[in-house]
Amino acid sequence: MPKLYRPETLTEACSLLASLDNPMVYGGGTAIQILIKQGILFADNFVDLSRIPRLREITADHNGLSVGPMVTVRRMETDERVRATSPLAASAYHLVANPRVRNTASVGGNIAHGDYRLDPPTALLVLNATIDATSTRGTRRIPAREFFVDFQQTALTPDEMVTAVRIPTQPTGSGRFVKYSSLSENDWPCASAAVLVVDSPRREVRIGLGALAPVPRFVSFDATGLTDQEAVDAALTAVDPALDPIPDVRGSVAYKRRLGRIAVEDAVRSAWKDLADG
Ligand SMILES: Cc1cc2nc3c(=O)[nH]c(=O)nc-3n(C[C@H](O)[C@H](O)[C@H](O)COP(=O)(O)OP(=O)(O)OC[C@H]3O[C@@H](n4cnc5c(N)ncnc54)[C@H](O)[C@@H]3O)c2cc1C
Fold first, then answer.
1. How many CA atoms lie within 13 A of 75 on its CB side?
2. 26 lines ligand 1 (CB under 6 A)
3. Residue 8 zone, left/alpha/beta (φ > 0; ψ -120 to 50; rest)
């Protein structure tokens, strides 16, 4: 039987992760419980972070948001500071699974899970978020764009935990998160895209892709002076080399590539329209 540890300080949690055999951080448990039931997750010791108050905090200042790993996905969709500082992030968290999962799943667990289909990382990539990773050796800050290393593999070492996700204030411009599912509305995405059109002073289009490659992917290009159709065409050209979908019950490679292109087109077109409408 695995053991459950419930430290009350970050120092204690770090020591446990450094000293226990085969430990695993326990966030909201929504992914862990399913993997245990499927018989594909074996950990000897779980370190539950829910009793460490500072890991449940959201703080906001002129730079943006600092989000504790035990903040729930639900709070990210409803918190006024998140909605005001980063509406794009709030909209991506809003479309995770269903209210039951969102009420339990944590921000840290979501990103550390490292699944290529996750919704929030697409927004974190375009917003240039960073992730604080803490161990007994201290804290290092990892750019979201370097966090997803390979299929279900993140830049975290086994003794590190996510202690904050830092999301810069959304820059002037317009953002859109588009998610298309092929089984049911609340299901994992078949394809998703977060698009941020930044206007300062040149126009830049940033795109985060979800479920369309073994890891969430990021591309960007200069769109200064382009019309909306030229921007859509440039976006489709830019994402093409990044599309490397994994075929599964939600669609074949060809279907996912096609849906991915539609998600990108829809997100760019509607973000562009928002800017034109002022
Ligand atoms: C039915 C269902 C549908 C879903 N649909 C979607 C969807 O549409 N879109 C989407 O984005 N996601 C979806 N998910 C995934 C969901 O977002 C994740 O299960 C959830 O975010 C994981 O968070 P958690 O806190 O429950 O993590 P846990 O289950 O507690 O942990 C997951 C992993 O992260 C690690 N971990 C947890 N916290 C930390 C930390 N602070 N530091 C380091 N490692 C940590 C754990 O060790 C484990 O490896 C779905 C899940 C379910 C069950």
1. 16
2. yes
3. alpha
Rg (CA), the chain: 19
Q: Where are the domains of the chain?
A: 3-168, 173-277
pLDDT in tens, 132-169: 999 999 999 999 999 999 999 999 999 999 999 999 99
Ligand 1 centroid to Cα of residue 119, in Å, is 11
Domain 173-277 = CATH 3.10.180.10: no
CATH code of domain 3-168: 3.30.465.10
- The per-residue pLDDT for range 160-211, each reduced to its tens digit, is 999 999 999 999 999 999 999 988 877 899 999 999 999 988 999 999 999 9
Residues 6+ apart with CB under 8 A from 54: 10, 68
- Centre of ligand 1 to C-alpha 31, Å, is 5
For residue 82 and ligand 1, the question of a CB distance below 6 A is answered with: no
Q: Is the pTM of this model over 0.90?
A: yes
